[in-house]
Design goal:
8 strands; eight-stranded mixed β-sheet; 255 residues; 4 helices
Length: 255
Amino acid sequence: MPVTNDVLSWRGQELRSSGDDKLGTIEEIYLDTRTREPEWALVTTGLFGSKQSFVPLRDASQSDAGVTVPFDKATVKDAPKIDPDGQLSRDEEALLYRHYSLDYGDAETGAGLREGRQDDDADGTVGRDVSGPTTDDAMTRSEEELRVGTAEREKGRVRLRKYVVEDEVTQTVPVRREEVRVEREPITDANVGDATSGPEISSEEHEVVLHEEEPVAEKRVVPKERVRLDKDVQTEQREVSETVRKEQLEVDGDR
């Protein structure tokens, strides 16, 4: 058994059975009236803590899960109904001992709460923390606050690429060609010499070479512009909604 002060700190902790079942919450610690050693735990059980049972602290041990006693859940559930008035008489204690199959000696004197413990803790604290070891005379109320900011993430990627397309281009260009034309001139004193310089009657052939222009297309690469990607930053307002929790206090009592 741990020392008395350690056991007294078990108030408000969870009590578990030998089969690791939850039995309830330790409401009070009763001390032997003669030795002042921890002897009984008053445990709140049932729906909404509607039932209270006394459980022996003999061979009890503490762990991260709570306090464990060497009794099963059914035994604790069927414990005799005794009024938790702050004191156990010898007869009440003997009844409990028989239920838990423990020896009850003639020297036993009963058990009760530590003097001054029923309402106040020994250290002067008014009330106590039923959810765990008593701390001080107040509890801290906290609430969550929403803090918003921004986180940069990759939205997407933009690529600039170029590819080749073909367009049909039509332009008009003037072209020239030569055509033959037959010219006739009469014999005059000016050309009679040339006209009679050859044989009087003969065969003769003259040839003229004709020329013409035809369209010719020539392509060359001409740089037109420089293109690059750049980024602009746009700012917009967005609403952020999130659920935050806060603790509220209420006073519950008969008066």
